[in-house]
Amino acid sequence: MGESAIEWTDATWNPVRGCVKVSPGCRSCYAETFAERFRGTPGHPYEQGFDPRLVPEKLGEPLTWRKPRRVFVNSMSDLFGEFVPRAYVAAVFGVMAGCGRHTFQVLTKRADRMRAWFEWLNAQTAGPYSPDRSFIVRTMACNHCVEGVDQGAGDPWPLPNVWLGVSVEDRKHGLPRLAHLRETPAALRFLSIEPLLEELGTLDLRGIGWVIVGAESGQRARPMDEGWVRSIRDQCAAQRVPFFYKQRLVGGRKVSLPVLDGAQHTAWPGVTRG
After folding, report:
1. Could you list the residue range(s) of the whole structural domain that residue 177 is in?
2. pLDDT digits (tens, 9 = 90+) for 51-78
3. Is residue 269 one of the residues assigned to a domain?
4. How many CB atoms lie within 10 A of CB 116?
5. Which end of the chain is more exposed for a tag (fewer CB within 10 A), N or C?
6. Could you give the angle at the alpha carbon of 103 between the alpha carbons of 102 and 106, nearest 5°?
């Protein structure tokens, strides 16, 4: 099982590995740093380094986890990367539909592609005799030989146990992702503002159910001003959005769940887990 030290999740699930950089927030990618250590190591899961690839043998992994948990989907990739076929994304959603006991946290920097995938899925159900969305995604999981997922239709949509989030690192690349996220159906929408690279200014948090903030880590970490964090915290409070302060750097060292103005900030969304 992919137990995780990431502060805002319990486990990770990686049916896709590897990625391609798309914005400044990718510069010090922890996943790339980890994967490239093992490039060329025979038999290692990251023998190919951080080159993007599907891992269909991992698709059914959450079905084997009996204890309910929060699951970060593709901590080592991006489910909506241009290297992931639509049908494979559907298979991932089919597995999530079949695992109502878990809460899945899907995070992407490709908010436009995420929105486009949902529009594609909607188009498959447009006709009077078309199958519903849950039948389609469950069927795709079955087509990828995932055992334990039946093709029964009728799941609520959007899936109540799937949270969708976007990364927001700056104004130019990060903030435009919010508009795509708002247009994407989700039980809960969240922002991962990590690494926070600059003051974001005024935030419109309509439709957002959770905000996570953290500094960049690693040897080349860019500095984060706590004034930027304070501004986000105060705007979350004003707009009644739960705020989670994940990490900062002190003397070049990562501090998890740091104190800001005398208190830790680790609010969770008020959503009932499956």
Report:
1. 11-16+26-264
2. 999 999 999 999 999 999 999 999 999 9
3. no
4. 15
5. N
6. 130
